[in-house]
Structure formats: C-alpha cells, structure tokens
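User: I'm new to structure prediction. If I give you an amino acid sequence, what do you actually give back? Let's try with this one:
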Amino acid sequence: MTTLAPPPRTEGDRHSHRAAPPADGGLASRARRLFTGAPEDPRWARPALWAILVLATALYAWNLSSITGNTFYNAAVYSGTKSWKAFFFGALDSGSFITVDKPPFALWVMGLSARVFGYGAWQLTLPMVAVGVGSVALLHRLVKRDFGPVAATIAALTLTLTPITVAITRDTNPDPVLVLLMLLGATGLLKAVRNGRLMPLLWSAIAIGFAFNTKMMQAYVVLPAFFLVYLWAANAPLGRRIRNLALATVALVVSSAWWMVIVDLIPASSRPYIGGSTDNTVWDLVIGYNGFGRIFGAESSVGSAGNGASFGGSSGIYRMFNEIMGGQISWLIPFAAVALVGGLILRGRAPRTDARRAALLLWGGWFVLHYLTFALAEGTFHPYYVTAMAPGIAALAGAGGVALYKAFREGSAAKWGWVLPTAIAGSALWAVVLLQRVSGSGTLYTVAEIVVGVAGAASVLGLLIGRFTKRQRLLGVAALAAVVALLAGPAAYSASAATGTSSNGTNPTAGPNTGGGMGGGGMGGGTGSAPGGAKSGTKPSGSAPTGNPPSDSKQSSGTESGGAENSGSRTGMGGDGGMGGGGTTVTSDMITYLKKHQDGATWLVAVATDQTASSIILESGQPVISMGGWSGSDNAMTLAKLKTLVKSGKLHYIMVSTDGGQGTNSDITTWVEKHGTAVKSSAYTSSSTTSTASSTSATSATSSTSSSSGLYRLDASDVD
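Assistant: Good question. You get back a string of structure tokens that encode the predicted 3D arrangement of the chain. For your 720 residues, that looks like this:
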C-alpha cells in the first residue's frame, strides 16, 4: 500500500487548518483552546490574557451596586424604561419634553439592561463594565494579530490600568461604549488593509457611525487616520482603494445620520425638544455644542457652557501633563511617543502594504489626533473624554515597546543601544513626578513611587549590562522590570478609582487631589469630588448618589449647588434663567406633596435645569420638565407652550426663582408669579424640619416654613 505524504503547509494552510474542527477534539478541543490559546502561542499567553480580563473586571466592577453614575443619564435611562418614545429619543423625562444633549445609543445599551434586569445601580453599570472588558480583549486581539502575544499582553494590561479608563468605566457616561465602537471600527479597517476587500471597510464605517450616535463628532477624531492608512497601505490597486473609501464614506454617513434625519423630520410638536441645541434640531447639536463648540469654544447652544467650561485645566499643548490631567492619562505618553517614532523607523523599508507599519500608523494617528484635539480644545472639556485616547497609547506601548526591545537586543549599539533605556528612564522619571505631586495622599502612592524608582533603575541598568555582557536572560528580566516601573503609578491610581466612592458622577476622575482645582472655568465636579479626586465639600445639583429605583423615601437624592451637603433635605437646585429653582430647594417633603396633588398631570413639576429635573425624576419616579436644559439657557420652554400645557391639564406646578434671578425666560417667571398660586413651605414642611442646608438655628428653620418656596400651582382657569 502506498501512503501519500501530506503536502507542505503554507501560512495560509496553517490558518485554514486552525479554523477547522480538529479530528479528535470537536467542541471539547475548542473549549480547551479557549483557555490555552492557539498551539503556536507560548503557554503563558492565554492564561495571561485571562488574568488581565479578570483584573479588568475586578477594577471596573468592584462594589458595583455602590456606583452612583451620572444622575443626568441615569434619569434618561429610567425614563426610557417607562416609555419607548422616551427611549428612542433619549428624552430626560418619560413625558418626552426634552432630550439629553447626546445621541441615545449608550442610553439604549443601559436602558435594555434596565428593562431586562430592572432599574438600579448595578443594572446601569453592568453594560459599561462589559464593554470596558470587551475593549481590553479586543485591543489584545488587534495587537496580537500584527505584533505577537508579548505586545498584546502589554497593550491589554496598559489599557486595563489607565486610571481615567477605570474611573469612567465605573460610571454611566457614554464614553466606554464610544471606545468599544471605535475599536470595532479599527478591527474592520485593519482587516480591510490586509485583504484589500470592501466588506471589512464597510463594517468599520458602520461601527464609527454607531460611535457617532454615542458621542457625535468625538467619534470622528480617528477618521483622518483611518482614511489615510487604508488609502496608503491597503492591499489593492489605487483605483479600488479610492472606490472602496467612497463606498465606505456612504456607509459612514448613513450609519451616522439615520437617527438624526428621522428625528429632524418629525414635527417638533410630536417629539421632545433637542436638548443643547439652539433651534431644536439634532443637526445644530452636531455642529454646535457637540461639534465646533467643543473645539473652538464659540457661543453654542448652551450659552456659556459651550464657551470654554473646562474641568481639565486651560487648553494648550501641555494640557495632558497638568496637575489635573497628568495622573489620569499621561503616564505612558512619553514612552508611547518614542515607541511610535522608533517603530516607524524600524519599518522604514517595508513594502507599502506592510501590515505592521499600517497598524503603527493607525495607532499613532489615533494617539496623536486625540492628543491634539483634547489638548487644544477651548470648549467644554472633561478629563474623562481622554479615555478615548487610551487604546492608542496602550497599543503603542505594547507594539512599539516590543519593537524597540528587539532593536535594542539585536541592533547595533550606535543606533539603538540608547533608545529603549532612555524611553524607560524618561517615563519612569515622569511617573515619579506625578507621584510626587500627590505625596502625602496615602501609603499606596508612596509605595508606588518607591516601586517606580527601584524598578525603573533596575530596568535601565539591567538592559545596559545585559546588552554589553550578552546575557539574554538579564535582558528579559530588565524588560519585565520596565513594565512594572511604567505601570506601578497607573495601577495605584486605578486601585483608588476602583475602591473609592468619590470618583464617579458628573465628572469622574481617578486618584487623589492634585491641587489643580476645577481648571479653567470649571462649573462643578463629580459626586463630592473635584478633578483629581479632591473632596470639594460641595456637589453640583443633580449629582446626588442616585441610581437605585425611585421611592418615596425621605432621604434626599441630592444637594444644592454651592451649598453644604445636607443629607435628607435637598434634591437639587434649579439653575439660572429665572425659570425655576434659583435660590430655592426641592425637598423630599415637597416631592411627596407634588405627587399627592399631581391630579392626573403628565408632569410632576417644571424646573429650570436638567440637574434639578433628573434628581426629582429619580426620587419621585415621575416625569419632570426641564425648561432650560443642562445650563438653563435652552429655549425648550416658551410662554405659549407653558400656557398650552397648563390649559390641557398636563402640568400644574412650576418652580421659579425666589432670589430675583432673571434670564432669557424671565417672561415665564413674571407670568407664573402673576397668575399662579404660590405654595407656601408650610403646606408640606413641618416646623421641625430643616428646609435649607444653610439654616444655622431652629429659629431660621421655623421661619422658613411660612415663606415662599418658589413653587406655584396653575390650573386651566389661570390661563388667559
């Protein structure tokens, strides 16, 4: 009998064989491979990935039920569980009077979780934890495909331990969803570059389109890199590359604009007002407040809020290194920059279609474009925005770091002998500077500083000695010490974000106070914290620890902006504009009174701002009108619209300013005070109850019960 030997296996045959079910294994073998990895991988590679994913899950999900999140988005999610109309539009209230100032995709993700599991703190944050861990796994896969398991492991660990990523993933802001969608876009793009085909490029465009429906123009920051990398490096003739990019652009426009077009085509009377816009259109929101207003700080749909309110310090090329932002994102920026330049030089003579150079260009473009956008942006800026930059830094740290290590080990001493040790030393010194800024903030940071110094010095010395003595094992130990040195600082900040209680809310940050304050014109911090984790002693209205199901509990769901925390007395304070809330407080007793006398109205009460409305929604479980949007300056409520709502019985109570505050809607205040019936505090508050946090004596508390609360009742008979 003649036995035919199998033909030699090519690279393509090897991948085809790996994709087919093994003859003896079937499903069981695939399950084993899930935990052990591909046969050609080192034995440590897959267990290391699982360990990183477990670490990411622990950091993001630690004490999950205590995470308060952003009350603004929490209220919109809750409203979406009560009304599919509110769900689709991303309305703040279930009556669909006004939307939040972002597109609704992230709200849909959280809302579906809340509809399946019920509304609560962990139900809202669980999807964020899932997408955060998914981003780590996806980045590992992308880097491993082009640079191997070592680079992928470093990249995944770096992303996991990026402090601001830990803080924002433990929150209900939309940024973790944005990051995952952009990484899905990168997945399709890199596949399209390798095979030159259209479909992966179309899927990449669609993923970025959904990212647009998560945070609008921020999703497009990576597009120049995507376009240029495909145009330059795709494995296809130039004509086909141009044609494919044109078709992908169509897919991008359709996947980005479909929700906007539908909403803007619906008559304004049949949908909620578009919060944050100047003309009640999504298009204005795209190009204004969530577009050029963020970059140039020009007048936008929310007045001064889009005119440069920064929680991350003044704009400028060094913003990422200031006392507010440094500890959040900058730890590996010096190393990533050197790794990018070095990696590209090392691939200098590779063919145009070289996959590794294409990947370096993509991750380098991702990093540089985000850096410049965030550093120079003069509009509203929160530290947590920069989590979108983290995948680029992490990928460069892994891919570029491994490339520099190979060049150091194998290249000539004259060209590459100094690059890797210098990059490690520079980043380690910067980490020491960052940790010195918070010296005295706790043992954790002191230990981290010592670890960085010792491991950094050991790494540099080990690399130099190993290189000149030809001791390969010493080089490997020195490289491991470098990883420890560069990640010890971020790990300390990340642990603080995971175990602390003040890092999430409106403005989540990681780590301790750095003394940076609110930056250039900041308007409020997170839940009881300023950027950097400082206890501020105040809370912005609407940033109360909510997230649990609304109830009639007497416990307060918030505190007054600018006032001392006073649990049990306040649920928020209206903003500017003279429409309701300025100088007044909303107590749990008031909410109980409003529910008792709602008399079939659609909305419980109308207040000035989203912050106040969201707190009341979450405590009462009822729709509440925000007449002025986030800052109180939206033109969502007009006098004619208010009269119509009152006339139809859909609204009975309006809260107006009691401190004389007047604004763009002062005509509403004047009309309400003239035609409405003032509700005295004594109608719902006993003399023994403190109604303001600033009360310092029983006398002042008692006298306040007979004063005007800024709350007015109007009925159909009160309308002209």
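You can read the tokens as a compact description of the fold. Here is one thing that stands out. The radius of gyration is 28 Å.
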